[in-house]
Design a protein that fits this description.
By secondary structure, the chain is an all-beta fold. It has no helices and eight strands. Strands 1-2-3-8-7 form a five-stranded antiparallel sheet, with no helix packed on it. This is 14.7 kDa heat shock protein-like isoform X1.
């Protein structure tokens, strides 16, 4: 069983900027550029970083300045199309009493990073 962290996880809320245009090429699935889900044993975040390769993903865990997982990735440049490539980066902040950020796992699959931070007490 999983549940989303807030009704607007990964999307613009009422008091923020307008919703981005819907991707006309996406036929199904969550339209948000990122999503945070709490499962029985972990907090899981996914983000859309199209064009980024696993070899270009950099991430680190910060337990000194907070309970964060930071990530960055660059889309490769394509000079033949006059494209310098897009740059992405962000952070996932979790409650240190509920989640063990030191055991966080990050993997990038087809331009989508999956960040999994286990709960300190699984099943709660």
């Amino acid at each position: 069983m999983s549940r989303k962290m807030g009704s607007n996880a990964g999307s613009s809320g009422e008091n923020s900027s307008p919703n981005p245009l819907r991707n006309p090429f996406q036929k199904s699935g969550n339209q948000a550029v990122y999503e945070v889900i709490e499962t029985k044993n972990a907090c899981v975040m996914r983000a859309d970083l199209p064009g980024c390769l696993e070899s270009d993903l950099t991430y680190w865990v910060d337990t000194v300045g907070g309970n964060n997982v930071h990530f960055f990735a660059d889309e490769p440049a394509m000079p033949e199309y006059e494209s310098a490539g897009r740059k992405y980066g962000g952070s996932m902040v979790v409650n240190p009493e509920a989640f063990d950020v030191k055991k966080a796992k990050v993997k990038l699959i087809n331009g989508v990073p999956w960040i999994t931070v286990p709960k300190t007490i699984p099943g709660k």
